[in-house]
Design a protein that fits this description.
seven-stranded mixed β-sheet, 40% helix, alpha/beta, Aspartate Aminotransferase, domain 2, 14 helices, 395 residues, 14 strands, Aspartate Aminotransferase, domain 1
Length: 395
């Protein structure tokens, strides 16, 4: 039987058994609507309040600053659209970067169609935003800065605290997409000067279909969804109590175990990076070499297609990706890799391996055993590689 190794944790994570255990009663006997005043409703409301407290504690926030959403994408949409429209009387300029998740980029493009002015900051070869470039981009009309905490494809961790400090000094709201950062690096919204922050449960071993938006007390923001008084009249719709409970437990577990998780992930990550570099030529590590998520490995392999590499790995039981799961149906190369300066051909040959709690040293050894011969076989089929001799391309 083929060994199965799951290393696509940036796409989604397996639910933690303790999360599932805590969720199950809310599918059966504890089914009340938290808006109801009877005992069934009060029981559901108490569970939701407990989950809110857990999420808030994991972020260094107040429980009254946490609002549950249907996903990290919804949280991003709400943060951008809600602050843009609520603060339009003070300006119409938004600053983001070229390496954001499409939940931010596409929302910014939508806002441009309705009269908002958006600046998309360039990044360096590691996908890092230069705070000096941010300062230069600020206008009198700037009302919002949205820079992700850590990149979902290449793992680069931005200078969030410095960016937040710049925004705070100018009286501009700062939003960060922390969907990948949550559970993989310490987050403290007060210390890091964050006004709005998005998270998603299924990236931290919780259920799919639930996320949260941190909204700092005092932030002026419009509702994204209308129709009821749920979430303190900010986000209408009957709450998904079982999933909210799961998010709360997952956030608590991620926060409590973060030091051990980061230590384990870093050791496995570095072992895999070093092993790939030792065994395979013509590879490029994408993302910052040190300021990166502890579980992220992203390589570009010259002369081969990422899709062929992924399918070949899948045939030997290794589940990885070539970039964001949200763009897996696209034939275009990663916008993140292109923004770092890679050409289309090199960007097409990328592989993202994202580790999780379930991974072991044996998994790393198996990947290092299977990956080199797959790369060698695919390169022998490549017309580009056939133009090379001794690793040198004939010009």
């Amino acid at each position: 039987m083929t060994k199965r190794v799951y290393v696509d944790n940036s796409a989604t994570t397996p639910m933690h058994p303790q999360v599932l255990e805590e969720m199950l009663p809310y599918f059966t006997e504890r089914f009340g609507n938290p808006s109801s005043i009877h005992s069934f409703g009060r029981e559901a409301k108490q569970a939701m309040d407990r989950a809110r407290d857990r999420v808030a504690k994991s972020l260094g926030a107040g429980s009254d600053e946490i609002y549950f959403t249907g996903s990290g994408t919804e949280a991003d949409n709400w943060a951008l659209k809600g602050t843009a429209y609520a603060n339009r009387d003070g300006g119409n300029h938004i600053i983001t970067s070229k390496v954001e998740h499409h939940a931010v980029l596409h929302t910014c493009q939508y806002l441009e169609r309705y009269g908002f002015d958006v600046t998309y900051l360039d990044v360096d070869e590691y996908g890092m935003v230069n705070p000096e470039d941010l300062k230069k981009a600020i206008k009198d009309s700037t009302i919002l800065i949205s820079i992700m905490f850590a990149n979902n494809e290449i793992g680069t961790i931005q200078q969030v605290e410095e960016i937040g400090k710049i925004a705070k000094g100018k009286g501009i709201y700062f939003h960060t997409d922390a969907v990948q950062a949550m559970g993989n690096t310490a987050i403290d919204v007060e210390r890091q000067n964050i006004d709005l922050l998005s998270i998603s449960a299924h990236k931290i071993r919780g259920p799919k279909g639930v996320g949260a938006l941190y909204i700092k007390k005092g932030v002026k923001i419009d509702n994204l969804i209308h129709g009821g008084a749920q979430e303190r009249k900010k986000r209408s719709g009957t709450e998904n109590i079982a999933s909210v409970v799961g998010l709360g437990r997952a956030a608590q577990l991620a926060s409590d175990n973060i030091e051990g998780h980061v230590r384990k992930m870093t050791l496995l990550r570095d072992r895999l990076i070093d092993g790939i570099r030792e065994r395979i030529e013509h590879v490029r590590l994408n993302g910052h070499p040190t300021q990166r998520l502890p579980n992220n490995i992203n390589f570009s392999f010259d002369f081969i297609e990422g899709e062929a590499l992924l399918l070949s790995l899948d045939m030997v039981g290794i589940a990885a990706s070539s970039g964001s799961a949200c763009t897996s149906g696209s034939l275009d190369p990663s916008h993140v890799l292109l923004a770092t300066g890679l050409c289309h051909e090199t960007a097409h040959g990328s592989l993202r391996i994202s580790l999780g709690d379930i991974n072991t040293e044996e998994d790393i050894d198996y990947i290092l055993e299977q990956l080199p011969p797959i790369v060698e076989r695919l390169r022998k089929l490549s017309p580009l590689f056939k133009q090379c001799e001794g690793g040198k391309v004939h010009v």
